[in-house]
Amino acid sequence: MTHSSVFLTVIIATLSVVSAGFDLGQSTRCVPIPNQLTVCQNVGYSEMRLPNFLGHSSLEGEVVPRSEDWRPLLQTGCHPQVQAFLCSLIAPVCLDTFILPCRSLCVAVRDSCAPALACQGHAWPRALACERFPAEEDMCLLPLPKFSLVAKDLPKPACQNCPSVEDSPAMKTVLDTLCLHDFAVTAKLHRRRLPSGGEPEFRVEGRVEFIRQGPLLPYDTQHLLQQWLLINLRCAQVLVRPGRSQLYVIAGTVQPDASLAITRLFPWHKKDANIAVATRKWKHHRC
């Protein structure tokens, strides 16, 4: 069973307490958020209630190890408040009253993050059905409007069919690709070897260089490509061999809804003179 499959199984099992109705009248205690609970560091508070809203009462035996099953979703950056949403259940803030996420926050996170789960072949867990969370007139954790406004306009990665990859392309092929796409960059993709049974880790190494910038933002592009790899793991597994780094020319488009689609990749090997010549000619090329 892959880590993502375990992730979904554990979520459905442990969140049954939410679907059954958490007993807000039960006895609780406040404890410091431990350093080992890495997914809920830097959330704006330092103490949490136990048991949490998932019914976990043991930090070392339940909270910390089971929290790691949320990491794949957090790493995709699928919504600016996904950490706040999840940690309000995993490590609820220690106040005089219980604070659950509002239904509107659940809807916002679900609408952004369900596609990331769907890309792994999983549906949004029924135990996290948003109607089970309180409405805004109750005391609950609200979505922050500024996040939805900012995120609406910025390019964002999306689940997609894997892009085509062509080795040793002709110079004309590269130039035509640059003309037909909104953006093109060079980036080195790396796949880290993990112990047997572990999920591979992918990252963008070094700087991302623009050939055609288009609507991408220089300060955000490396993070954007990193998120694309995390969401489209099955594509990443095909693109990069274990323990290797590969330099690519990556071309794609940004859709009207701001979703980014990578549609063409050229592995750039030292012997590929056509790519080198095409990228130089591009500065003066007229499509």
In short:
With 287 residues, this protein is an alpha/beta fold. Helices cover 36% and strands 20% of the residues.
For this entry, give a set of tags.
Wnt-protein binding; OB fold (Dihydrolipoamide Acetyltransferase, E2P); two-stranded antiparallel ribbon; Frizzled cysteine-rich domain; 2 domains
CATH homologous superfamily (4th level) name of the largest domain: Frizzled cysteine-rich domain
What is the average per-residue confidence, as pLDDT, rounded to a whole number? Answer: 84
The first-to-last residue Cα distance is 48 Å
Low-confidence stretches: 1-22
What is the CATH class name of the largest domain? Mainly Alpha
Count helical runs: 11
SSE-based structural type: alpha/beta
CATH topology of the largest domain: Frizzled cysteine-rich domain
Describe this structure in words.
It comes from Muraenolepis orangiensis (Patagonian moray cod). Disulfide bonds join 106-130. The protein has helices at 3-14, 16-20, 59-67, 71-75, 82-90, 103-119, 145-153, 171-180, 221-231, 233-239, 273-281; strands at 29-32, 47-50, 100-101, 140-141, 156-157, 164-165, 183-192, 201-212, 245-254, 259-267. It is an alpha/beta fold and 287 residues long. Strands 5, 6, 7, 8, 9 and 10 form a 6-stranded mixed sheet that branches. Helix 8 packs across helix 11. It is elongated. The N and C termini lie far apart (48 Å).
SSE diagram, text form:
Layout (H helix, E strand, L loop, with lengths): L2 H12 L1 H5 L8 E4 L14 E4 L8 H9 L3 H5 L6 H9 L9 E2 L1 H17 L20 E2 L3 H9 L2 E2 L6 E2 L5 H10 L2 E10 L8 E12 L8 H11 L1 H7 L5 E10 L4 E9 L5 H9 L6
